[in-house]
Design a protein that fits this description.
Elements: E1 3-6, H1 10-13, H2 17-23, H3 31-48, H4 50-61, H5 72-80, H6 84-102, E2 109-114, E3 117-125, E4 128-132, H7 141-154, E5 158-163, H8 194-202, E6 208-210, H9 213-222, E7 232-234, H10 239-248, E8 253-254, E9 262-267, H11 273-284, E10 291-296, H12 299-312, H13 319-329, E11 330-334, H14 338-348, E12 352-356, H15 360-364, E13 372-375, H16 381-386, E14 412-420, H17 422-438, H18 442-449
Parallel strand pairs: 1-11, 4-5, 4-7, 5-6, 7-8, 9-10, 9-12, 10-11, 12-13
Antiparallel strand pairs: 2-3, 3-14
Length: 453
Amino acid sequence: MWRRLDLRGEALTALSSAEIRRRLPRAATDVDVALEAVRPICDDVRDRGDAAVLDATERFDGVRPATPRVPADALARAADELGPAVRAALTEAIRRTRLVHRAQLREPVTIEVAPGTTVTERWVPVDRVGLYVPGGRVAYPSSVVMNVVPAQEAGVGSLAVVSPPQRHRGRNDGAGDLSGPGGTPGPWDGLPHPVVLAACQLLGVDEVYAAGGAQAVAMLAYGTESCPAVDVVTGPGNVYVAAAKRLLRGVVGIDAEAGPTEIAVLADHTADPAFVAADLIAQAEHDPMAACLLVTPSVDLADAVEIELGKQVPVTRHRERVEEALSGQGAVALVDDVDAGLRVVDAWAAEHLQIQTADPAAVAARVRHAGAVFVGPYAPVPLGDYLAGSNHVLPTGGTARHSSGLSVAAFQRQVHVVACTQEALADVAPHIAALGAAEDLLAHVDAVEVRSR
C-alpha cells in the first residue's frame, strides 16, 4: 500500500535538507499550469462582474444561483435547522478558537530611540476581508470558524465568506441523503452547504456568497455589483484557488497558496501502531493527493502499522480515496534514531506533525519546521482540525520552512508612528547629512537642514 525508504546510516548524513525533501513523497501540484486556466476566468470577473461569476459557477459547479449573495433568510434557516450535536460542537469550537486567537493580539509599543525621538508600533486591522471556505467532496464548517474568528478578533469591520454552491442538498443534521424526494433538488440547491451557512450565522457573519474556485477569488479581489472588493483573501482551496490567489496577489493581499493536505508522524517503539495507522488514514481521507509520512527508527513499528493499515483501511468510509493517497504519497522512512527522525521531519516541514515517542514534549520542543505540532498519543490532528483552539489553515508543500498558519496577524498591518522634537532632529542631522550624501539624495538632507536654519 505504501513504500519504504531507508534513510539509515551514512545515507542520511550525506544528504542536505533539500535532498531529503526530494526523496520524500509529496503530491505535485502545478500551480503555473493552473495559472493559465484561471487567468481568463479572473479577467472575465474583472470585466463583467456578477454575470461572469454566475456563468463560471454554472460551468464548474453545475448550478446557477439566482444571485451570488446568499439571502439572509437562508442563513437564518440553516441555523434553525442545524442539528443540536453539530450546534454544540461548533459553539465549543468557536469558544476555544476565540481564546487562542484573542491571546495573539498585540498592544501598541513605544520605543524611545533617543531623547526626544520615539517610534510607536501599532497593529491596525485591514478594513475588509474575504474568507474562502472549500466545498467539493465534503462541507467544512470548521474552516468557517478558522477563518472568521481570527479576523473578528483582529478587529476587521467587514467580512465576506465565499463557498461553492451545492447541488441536491436537503438537510443539515449531518446524516443521510441531502437531496430532495426521489433525488430531486432539495431546498439548499444552489447554495453553499447548509452547515457552512449555519456556522456563518452562529458567528454573526451575514455576508455570504455562493461562489467558489477562481471566480470567487476574483470577485473578492476586484469587487462586483453585489460584492465590494476586499483587502485580504484567506482560506484553503484547490489548485485553481491557489492559482487565482497567486495571480491576484498585489491586487489583494493573501495568506498563502494552500496545497494538498499532509501529515508526518515521528514515532518510536513506544507508539501504538493502531493510533498511528488511524492518524494516517484520517489525513488521507481528505484528498487522494494527501501526503502521509511515518518516520521511525523502529522496524517493528513500521511492520505493525502496515498490518494495522491492512485492517483499518478496508472498513473506512472513504476507502478508495484513502488507498489512492497512501499508495501515491504514503511512505515510511526508516531512520537510525529519533534525532535522525527530527532531521527528516524538519526537512519535510509538514503541515501537520505528530510526535509519538517516549518523551514527546521534549522532542516537540526541538521541532523547527511544521505548520502545527501535535504532542503525544492523545493529541491527534483531528483535535486541531476542530477543537484544540489552534488554527487549521496551515502552510503546506514544505512552506512551513518560511510561513506560518493563519492567525490574527494575517488581518492586521504593522504601522510605525514616528515623533521627534526640534532638538532631537538637530542632534541627528549630521548623520542624516552623511547618509543622504552617500546616496546622492541631497534633497533629503535639505529637508532636515531647512528645519534648523
